[in-house]
């Protein structure tokens, strides 16, 4: 495996594992919805 | 709409169900082949870019639109599209692909899924022992499919039995509903599938270089075959389109399944984080597991010369000929073979139940049918329409169904959907909807991407596919003359189903006047 191959596998796996950890740490923690978010006021009818 | 809507039981349940829908046979068989043929490791660059520009935006759009439509008591694309654009009398007909497309895929997918179950059984019972060469496994597969009879199987009975078992399993899960059937199955099947995938990936990597005569036929060099970059490939438009296509097909976007699943969420349930979690689970299965099992294992056993031919032999050949051949030469190969095929079966069943659900939900929501009745109608229709793929497999019927279901309708469906959501419903309202109950604040750049970038890329993909691939497939260019009547007959049947669906949508809306359309679920 070339250096380029290692760099790309680390990049791809890094992105995916970061996403997984980020998402599941929040999902499993059961956080409340983001409290400070202000909707733009559109009425969804 | 007084009937109580079905709901997901837990947040993790819906995430695993959507991830289960996305993780299918393609994650383990299509992705590595696409990567190997399109620049190796360099393929991952356009792949990740397309994930950010097409995949994730479409995931968020579908989760948001689905939950919004569910608020009006609709679980399928026609009703959801109507809820997004209430003034239009025609928009519901544009959602026809959200029921027809998944149904089309179901017509052949369950049959392929049944091969996985059969091969898992044959692996664990040692039926492959003594078989060593590639042609022996090709013979086994063609005999199993009933295309040849050289004594391994007497006729198509084994294939039909496994198909019936698989079909009945599917129908049973769907019968028990969202929480009692689909969610329960996915809560067990998805962790099991990922566990089997990790075990197989570790097994392949720790094979190192098993043949002392060929020390360079190693697992690391196998990973290198897939990941070593050929950056010149990035200049090719085809490579970028292949990456966009792979992202598209792997995330189950555009086919209406995510719309249906997310319609069972409550009004204030999060969609932003859940959509991203389901998408990243699928990417783990595809890039990390899918990229570590098939190609590296094939490299170790076939070497750097033959691997090119093996990689281009097609997904079925890789999965059902190459892989059992490799497992047969491993210690405890029967167990690893079982793990491989049962993992594929779990990936298959979690996907097939998701593509069945839109049809069932359509009858439940738009005709107020009870679930048992809706499942009965779906079961009878699906069983009859699955038979051509089983009986005429070698007449090109399966490939044609795959073109219409897994290519044509999902690309068109996603393009209609993104334009409808971002431009007709409006990006600002979509953004607000996306953030209702959100546990993640989506970066604002995605507002621009959803409105401009994703639609432009999708329109480009649509035009490109139409010009380069679709016309020749639609006109059956290159199809053997003997197969033409079978494919033509199947297309006429499909046209009949499409017209019938259109009539059903018209009848359903005639029943419940749009003036009565109102948000029914808080």
Q: Helices and strands in order, then pairings?
A:
The complex is a heterodimer of chains A (45) and B (522).
Chain A: H1 3-29
Chain B: H1 11-22, H2 25-37, H3 44-70, H4 77-84, H5 91-94, H6 97-124, H7 134-144, H8 157-175, H9 177-205, H10 219-227, H11 237-250, H12 257-262, H13 272-311, H14 315-328, H15 333-366, H16 371-391, H17 397-434, H18 445-474, H19 484-511
How would you sum up this structure, described in words?
The complex is a heterodimer of chains A (45) and B (522). Chain A is mainly α and 45 residues long. Chain A has one helix and no strands. Chain A has one helix at residues 3-29. The longest helix of chain A is centred in the middle third of the chain and has 27 residues, at 3-29. Chain A is rod-shaped. The termini of chain A are far apart. Chain B has a single domain, classed as Amino acid/polyamine transporter I, CATH 1.20.1740. Chain B has helices at residues 11-22, 25-37, 44-70, 77-84, 91-94, 97-124, 134-144, 157-175, 177-205, 219-227, 237-250, 257-262, 272-311, 315-328, 333-366, 371-391, 397-434, 445-474, 484-511. In chain B, α3 (44-70) packs parallel to α11 and α9 (177-205) packs antiparallel against α15 (333-366). The longest helix of chain B is centred in the middle third of the chain and has 40 residues, at 272-311. At the A-B interface, α1 of A face α1, α3, α10, α13 and α17 of B.
Unreliable stretches of chain A, pLDDT < 50, 5 or more residues?
A: 41-45
Q: In CATH terms, what is the architecture of chain B?
A: Up-down Bundle
Which range does the strand content of chain B fall in? under 5%
Secondary structure class of chain A reads: mainly alpha
- DSSP helical segment count of chain B: 19
Instruction: Output the structural class of chain B.
Output: mainly alpha
Separation, N- and C-terminal Cα atoms of chain B: 13 Å
Oligomer: heterodimer
Chain-averaged pLDDT of chain B? 92
What is the helix/strand order of chain B?
Answer: HHHHHHHHHHHHHHHHHHH
- How many strands appear in the DSSP assignment of chain A? 0
Q: What is the CATH top level name of chain B?
A: Mainly Alpha
Tell me the β content of chain A. Answer: under 5%
- So how many helices of chain A? 1
């Amino acid at each position: 495996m070339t250096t380029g191959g290692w760099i790309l596998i680390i990049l791809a796996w890094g992105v995916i594992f970061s996403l997984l950890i980020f998402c599941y740490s929040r999902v499993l923690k059961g956080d409340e919805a983001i409290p400070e978010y202000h909707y733009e006021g559109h009425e969804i009818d | 709409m007084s009937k109580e809507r079905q709901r997901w039981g837990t947040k993790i349940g819906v995430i695993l169900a959507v991830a289960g829908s996305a993780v299918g046979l393609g994650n383990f068989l299509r992705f590595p082949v696409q990567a190997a043929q399109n620049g190796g490791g360099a393929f991952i660059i356009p792949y990740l870019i397309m994930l950010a520009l097409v995949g994730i935006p479409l995931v968020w759009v579908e989760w948001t639109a689905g939950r919004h439509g569910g608020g009006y008591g609709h679980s399928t694309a026609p009703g959801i599209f109507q809820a997004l654009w209430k003034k239009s009398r025609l928009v519901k007909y544009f959602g026809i692909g959200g029921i027809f497309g998944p149904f089309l895929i179901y017509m052949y997918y369950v049959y392929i899924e049944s091969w996985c179950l059969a091969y898992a059984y044959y692996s664990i019972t040692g039926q492959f022992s003594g078989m060593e060469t590639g042609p022996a496994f090709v013979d086994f597969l063609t005999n199993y499919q009933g295309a040849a009879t050289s004594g391994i199987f007497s006729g198509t009975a084994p294939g039909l039995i496994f198909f019936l078992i698989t079909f009945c399993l599917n129908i049973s899960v769907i019968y028990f509903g969202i929480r009692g059937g689909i969610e329960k199955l996915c809560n067990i099947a998805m962790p099991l599938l990922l566990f089997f995938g990790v075990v197989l990936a570790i097994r392949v990597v720790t094979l190192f270089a098993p043949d002392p005569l060929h020390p360079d036929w190693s697992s690391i060099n196998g990973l290198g075959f897939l990941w070593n970059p050929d950056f010149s490939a990035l200049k090719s438009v085809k490579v970028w389109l292949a990456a966009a296509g792979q992202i598209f097909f792997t995330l189950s976007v555009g086919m209406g399944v995510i719309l249906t699943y997310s319609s069972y969420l409550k009004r204030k349930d999060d969609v932003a984080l859940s959509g991203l979690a389901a998408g990243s689970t699928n990417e783990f299965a595809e890039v990390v597991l899918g990229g570590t099992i098939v190609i590296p294992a094939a490299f170790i056993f076939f070497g750097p010369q033959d691997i090119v031919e093996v990689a281009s032999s097609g997904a079925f050949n890789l999965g059902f000929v190459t892989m059992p051949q490799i497992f047969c030469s491993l210690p405890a190969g029967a167990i690893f073979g079982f793990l491989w095929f049962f993992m594929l079966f779990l990936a298959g069943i979690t996907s097939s139940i998701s593509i069945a659900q839109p049809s069932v939900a359509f009858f439940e929501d738009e005709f107020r049918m009870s679930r048992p009745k809706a499942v009965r109608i779906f079961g009878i229709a699906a069983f009859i329409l699955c038979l051509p793929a089983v009986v005429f497999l070698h007449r090109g019927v399966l490939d044609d169904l795959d073109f219409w279901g897994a290519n044509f309708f999902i690309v068109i469906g996603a393009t209609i959907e993104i334009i409808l959501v971002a431009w007709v419903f409006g990006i600002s309202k979509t953004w607000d909807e996306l953030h209702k109950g959100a546990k993640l604040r989506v970066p604002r750049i995605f507002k621009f991407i959803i409105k401009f970038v994703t639609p432009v890329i999708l329109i480009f993909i649509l035009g490109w596919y139409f010009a380069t691939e679709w016309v020749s497939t639609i006109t059956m260019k290159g199809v053997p003359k003997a197969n033409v009547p079978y494919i033509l007959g199947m297309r006429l049947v499909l046209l009949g189903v499409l017209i019938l669906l259109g009539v059903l949508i018209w009848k359903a809306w005639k029943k419940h006047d749009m003036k009565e359309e109102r948000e029914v679920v808080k």
